[in-house]
Automatic annotation (TrEMBL):
Entry's transmembrane regions: 293-318
Recorded superkingdom: Eukaryota
Source organism: Achlya hypogyna
Keyword terms, alphabetized: Membrane, Transmembrane, Transmembrane helix
Name of the protein described by the UniProt record: Transmembrane protein
Amino acid sequence: MNRSIIRGTSTYFAANISASMPAKSFEITNGNLDSNGKAYAQALLLRNTLGPYVNIDCLYLAVPAALVATYASFQSALMAYALEASEPIVTYDAQGAPSVAPVPPSWRNATYFGGNPLCDRRPSTDYVQSPFSFFDDCSSGLELRVPLATTSLLFALAAMPSTTVESICTLATPYAMCIDAVTSAASHLGALSIPSDFAARVSNASSSVQTAGVGLMQFATTSTGTWNLLRQPLLDTSDFAFFGWILLADWVTGSREAVSFQGDSDTLNLISDAYKPQLYQTNTQPVEAATQILYYLVAVTTTILVAVGIVAMVYSIFVQLRFYGRNLFYFNRVVGAVWIGRPLSYLRGITAVLLLSTTNTSLAKSWSLTHFVPAPRSTFDALVISGEATWLTYVLNEVLLIFTRHSTKEYSSLSSCLSWLVLFALEQTNPITIIASLDRSCVGQNMDYTVTCVSGLVDVVSQLAFASGALHAVGCNVTAARPQKMRF
């Protein structure tokens, strides 16, 4: 063609530029109309409903906030049940998610030609065809299938508690598979502690969805050959709304999307077919690798302490243990000042403070959930780590030696003991808890080259506790030094 689709340019395809460059119809070029500019079958039906193809705008629809809140409320109840009694839900979930083919009551006894408004040449089938999707190339008409996954199925049952299993499954095939799946799920629903305000949330979500007008469509013909554009809202007064709640659950979780097809004459707000998740393998590198250098440096100080301790022990045996026992309380101070040095001594102490400022958790798996479980430190572990943090006071004692002078002996011991007790008390009375925040954001690079997404933040270290631990070490030095100075 050698024409432009940008309006106003010198080669705009819809402009009659010359005899050799007449106006072109994009719908003819695209195959929506024949060479004479006439539409037939699905194309004619859509043009009569929405208007010309070239004037249809596709806008992404966001999930209503009320629907998200309703699903989150139910999911919290389900997760609580899964954590408390995981065995029943694990056994049920292991059966897999059967897939059924629902048909709206008003769509029966018709011949179907596709559920994607942009595909106008699909062949006829005796089953309802799948809705639109981003990857739909219009080459084949697959059947509309709705997977009865555990969470979405239980969510639909909770949203429609008065609906019977038989009335639901009369709308879907295979009937027996649907009966088994829904009956089995209903047996677990009674064990869930559904929030008292859940019914009100469902009502609000239903109103929001009905206002948005999201649903399904299908090109179809009657037994007499009359073309119809069938529409089915996801939520209405029929039992098909049960499958609508399942589709809405998929919309909330991101496995489906909703798009508004807006033409000159009308608008179709449609939900998509289900997308297969694109799984990415997480980083298998252990978290410890990020702090490995600290581990090695602390290990160096431990090695020096052990080596000097062994040498001292040999000498003590050689002199038949004739030495002043109280000097052993100054072992760390002497070794730290002479053999280890202040930088490594400071690093050892600040590492202990960092450890005290980190929540102690373990990963546990329940059902299909991997979650953090608090694992509080034992009293012995807390005593040891708090004692290691006193290396900070050793360094501060040396730095302040020019000020404390003759009172250093008494003051340094008091400051170390005070720091140890304060840090131990903080660990026991105010342990650090894990904090998680969800705030998904995605940024595209070079428009469509790649996309970088951040889902949230899991904070296992309290910066406030870290700063508090370090300041307590300083504060204990000042507190211990003041009475010694007054006495001096």
